[in-house]
Amino acid sequence: MTEPNNNAAAAMPPYAKREPKRREFHGDVFFDDYEWMRDKESPEVRDYVAAQNRYCEQRMVHLAGFRSTLFEELKSHVEETDMSVPTRINDYWYFTRTQQGKQYGVQCRMPVRGEDDWDPPEVDPKGEPGSMPGEQVVFDANAEAEGHDFFRLGGIDLSRDGRWMLYGVDVSGDERYDYRIRDLAARNEDGSPVELPEQFNGIGGACFTPDGQWVFWVEIDDSWRPFAIWRHRVGTSVESDVCVYREADERFWAGVGISFDERNIVIGTGSKTTTEVLMLPTATPEGEFSAFIPRQDGVEYDVSFACFEGAGEDGSDIPLAVVYHNANNPNFEIDVIDMRRHEPPYRLGEGVCVAAGSPYGCEHGEIDKPITEAYYNPVNPAILEGAHGLGIEGIALHRHFVTLSYRSDGQPHVAYMPKDAAAADFLAGRPWRFRELLPPPLDNDWDMVAAERDDETGDHGEWLWTEDAKVPEASASDVNGAGAVDHTSSSDGASDDHLPGETRRLYSIGTGGNPSYDAPRMRYSFSSYTRPGELHEIDPATGQDTLLKRATVLGGFDPRDYMERRVWITARDGERIPVSLVWHRDCPAQDAPMFITGYGAYEISSDPGFSVSRLSMLDRGVLYAVPHIRGGGEMGRAWYEQGRRLNKKHSFEDFVDATCALQRARLADPRRTVANGGSAGGLLMGAVANMAPECYAGIEADVPFVDALTSILDPDLPLTVTEWDEWGDPLHDPDVYRYMKSYTPYENAPSGADAGAEAAGENVGGTDVDSTEGVPTLAAHFPKIFITTSMNDTRVLYVEPLKWLARLQSAGVDAVAKIEVEAGHGGISGRYKQWEEVSYENAWCMAVMHITR
């Protein structure tokens, strides 16, 4: 793309000196030219960061008008003064107000009208905080943030009576929170809040006991690992606090909270692959914690307690322990233990199994069976039978209903049933009769069943590609092995069954908003890529569904104007990869500019969700694509296992193969394709840029984990030891070292230091050299790079993207970086600032696609 501004085009990146530092492990030597940038307090580093920010502004100055346009478009879609639906917690209804011009929300509450008050009060959404009769401002983040460039609320916990509030804030972005205790029933003479003198500074989190008399808080070590739990008696000096638990294993993190039934203080400790739960009754907070089930290496579990009220033969309650674990099933199972007949200790796998995931394709399951093979198990509810990639994600028992969360066919699902029916099924020894929770469709929407479908159209008659786009099946020798058009076949499960009235959108669904055990109705939330979030309430006995709130999107927005569908591409090793596509229905997805984004790590799923900022891209004809690559959790544990440790390259290959498949199908134009990913997804971006630079015109890498090998080799860096379960341990395992070295983006990127070898045509640092021109081939065809990072990031240290940036620029790659000096891993705070930031990023991405208005 030609820069329209000559001054911007003429700007030169800052010079970064080279000070080679020798690194030697397992017989391999690497000279790191830019490791000197790790000294954050060095004036030289600070000057270099400032110079890079000035260079970025020079390069971006011609997009100022476009950025402003995108910001105003985004703002025009947002109901700036609004409020959330009130949620009952104990004796109050809690809700959040947002106000036009204010960066942060205001937490408010109103008292319930009686013990049986389960209908939210009518509150004027346009009113000022505290303006309704009985309304009280609990926490105004706008006032608390005054004087700070960065502000993040770490959490709020309240005593059962609602008087005492425990809250934590971070004003630097380093994810260490300062906690205070505030009296919500009193004010000082000047009107300021009354706070107790004790302070908990630089901690990881904290919780009250229900009576508000004790605080349990989390200490963080020098490596930013939450590792110890302390007990504090409210009203006493913090210096007298007692350490009640210390986690010695550096792979494990520790946290503390209160059980859902408020009967136990719970310490949860875990690594990436092993967990343990320790408990102490809230009635005896000075007692000793004990493990519910002692930890077993490679086993994850959680436990909660509930009961079947009045279900005993004499009308008594049946106390239950509900255990979620993967001791016998890698995709987890849920066991319910009748505690009338079983005293502790307990072991994993006992009780009645009410749901079990699919072991297909898992390392510790049936590894030879395909992940996508239909799974049947007689213990499972009928709705789970025949599911593909089935993973069980949790169960919740309330007084009147039970909810089950699971994944199948690459998407999240929720099922529910009345509590009395669950008790009957449990006592009868039969599978529980869950019903899947299906969000209602929109009237006259395209997601209703189409009468006719053609092979060359999408699931609902929309044109995706033309007949002349079809090409023969790619051969095994094809450069990417991604294949041709028939590799983007429709197979999403939600669109092929043609159930009348069922939504066809690629939605996310969850049962948030149910903090009260006694609530008679169940709340659930729902959204899709093109349908704004909705909060519903359903009566589990009758199935009556009530819409409580639909997110308002202004500016003439109509979800029916946007299309979304799931296609599957075949990766080079034969695995089928789901890919979500979104586009404007008036802009056929044919040779379109494409924004393709992915993550693929930590078993985190990239599920559908609505974004107001995405509309500006879709309205300009951009195809939005999300390959659900291995390393995530979309298809269960096996999907994760096939994209981590010594399988990590599958994540990168899946992303490239999905990109190629969409481009070969003539859906997307490689000359206008921009890829995006953040954190571990930033590692993905660096890797695919090295692997297949010809597929991408530009790449946006946010807080990218691009110097992965250097970081994972150093156990003194924040989080390193805990990360060995995810990436492997290159410090002690030479195979892991060699494998990570082969893909870590920084070491495999083109570099100006390669010049000495260019004339000889040698392969240097993973870069192919074109000896006829004396220019590294990779650098000559590298995509444009835009990097975002933060100086206070504790998860991916700023030095990683900074070193990568210097190496790329030294090789002549067009790379720029926007470096926040105040924020942390999550970026800047404040909604207007965040809107400006996303507009800045989107302007660059679309400019690379040749869209600048």
From TrEMBL:
<dbReference type="Pfam" id="PF02897">
    <property type="entry name" value="Peptidase_S9_N"/>
</dbReference>
<feature type="compositionally biased region" description="Low complexity">
    <location>
        <begin position="752"/>
        <end position="766"/>
    </location>
</feature>
<dbReference type="Pfam" id="PF00326">
    <property type="entry name" value="Peptidase_S9"/>
</dbReference>
<feature type="domain" description="Peptidase S9 prolyl oligopeptidase catalytic">
    <location>
        <begin position="609"/>
        <end position="848"/>
    </location>
</feature>
<dbReference type="InterPro" id="IPR002470">
    <property type="entry name" value="Peptidase_S9A"/>
</dbReference>
<protein>
    <submittedName>
        <fullName>Protease II</fullName>
    </submittedName>
</protein>
<dbReference type="InterPro" id="IPR002471">
    <property type="entry name" value="Pept_S9_AS"/>
</dbReference>
<comment type="similarity">
    <text>Belongs to the peptidase S9A family.</text>
</comment>
<dbReference type="GO" id="GO:0004252">
    <property type="term" value="F:serine-type endopeptidase activity"/>
</dbReference>
<feature type="region of interest" description="Disordered">
    <location>
        <begin position="750"/>
        <end position="770"/>
    </location>
</feature>
<dbReference type="GO" id="GO:0006508">
    <property type="term" value="P:proteolysis"/>
</dbReference>
<keyword id="KW-0378">Hydrolase</keyword>
<dbReference type="InterPro" id="IPR001375">
    <property type="entry name" value="Peptidase_S9_cat"/>
</dbReference>
<dbReference type="InterPro" id="IPR029058">
    <property type="entry name" value="AB_hydrolase_fold"/>
</dbReference>
<feature type="compositionally biased region" description="Basic and acidic residues">
    <location>
        <begin position="495"/>
        <end position="505"/>
    </location>
</feature>
<dbReference type="InterPro" id="IPR023302">
    <property type="entry name" value="Pept_S9A_N"/>
</dbReference>
<dbReference type="InterPro" id="IPR051543">
    <property type="entry name" value="Serine_Peptidase_S9A"/>
</dbReference>
<keyword id="KW-0720">Serine protease</keyword>
<feature type="domain" description="Peptidase S9A N-terminal">
    <location>
        <begin position="13"/>
        <end position="304"/>
    </location>
</feature>
<keyword id="KW-0645">Protease</keyword>
<feature type="region of interest" description="Disordered">
    <location>
        <begin position="478"/>
        <end position="512"/>
    </location>
</feature>
